């Protein structure tokens, strides 16, 4: 990585944001032969949500688009370590969703049916079967669950570093500690980015700045509807392996998994957080999490939390991402709004985005998820987002 390498005076494509999404796009561009690419990151490489997430990777979704995307993404995750020569601690212990109400159980049943029609091996389970999959659970009050053994977890940091190394090897300039301060436009077209380390002229700019994307797009006069939302998470002391799947409870938003290092990593829904780009941690979260966790798995009541942190979800009004060009500014491309699941989407989305940039055509998915939908009112409701 080229933290001290000089910035080039020009590049065909400038990617703003050195998170998983920006790096996956840059990597895919370089693989397709487009090597005049630079990635600009204002801080260190895992400083954004890509270094702060739970590493959950699943094909269990209630949207057909997401199921199809994630089938490919899981395949890429499986091959990633070998291809990138870095251990990403990928463990396919499955995902077990549990529902404690009839309404949520019905939603799970509908999702399972759709997922099976798309070739997944997800199955609906009753309380007894849920207990068999995760014996630590107290299943009193569990109405139904859904389980897919192919889902899993990764360790996010080496995943990001793997992309960064591969980018550098392919000739992409990856520049941490390089903040974009402004975007220069001429005659309705983006022509350069101004940074803390100089100016880079370019043909195309990709905004992959996660929850900071509205800030960056505003530099070109573009108003994005995304809102940052702080999401907290914590890791426990390491324990002997005892938990196969990531467990996610629909009512409380509780989720927890055991990493390959033995830690229990988990979070819970918490709407009462400060507005804006806030990455601080609060005591309220620990109370909510420990109550939900000990209800789901009482034996974890004596678990010791070692580390608590937070990052920002990048929330869109309809739950679908915002991808592709901006009608008002030629050369400006958006790849943001991935809510709380952009990490798992990035391995498959990078190559799709690279093809979109190189072919210059708008694929069906990019048409539906374009920014203009908020002006035309044709929202792309993502359906029930499980977890
Ligand atoms: C606690 C938590 C748990 C999560 N759990 C999961 C999960 O289990 N599975 C999953 O798939 N997803 C999960 N997510 C969501 C996932 O982490 C994000 O969707 C994903 O990492 C977004 O990647 P990104 O590259 O778009 O954004 P980021 O990783 O945030 O990267 C954007 C980068 O842009 C940089 N930047 C901003 N402004 C500028 C500027 N002006 N100039 C240069 N650089 C700039 C930032 O510093 C940042 O590094 C979770 C998120 C959080 C916070």
Explained architecture:
This protein is α/β, with parallel strands linked by helices and 387 residues long. It contains ten helices and 18 strands. Strands 1, 2, 8, 9, 10, 11, 17 and 18 form an eight-stranded mixed β-sheet that branches. The protein has an eight-stranded mixed β-sheet with strand order 5-6-4-13-14-15-12-16, with helices on both faces. 50% of the residues are buried. The model has no long low-confidence stretch (mean pLDDT 95). The protein binds flavin-adenine dinucleotide. Flavin-adenine dinucleotide binds next to helix 1, strand 12, strand 16 and helix 8.
Provide a brief overview of the structure:
The chain has 387 residues and is of the alpha/beta class.
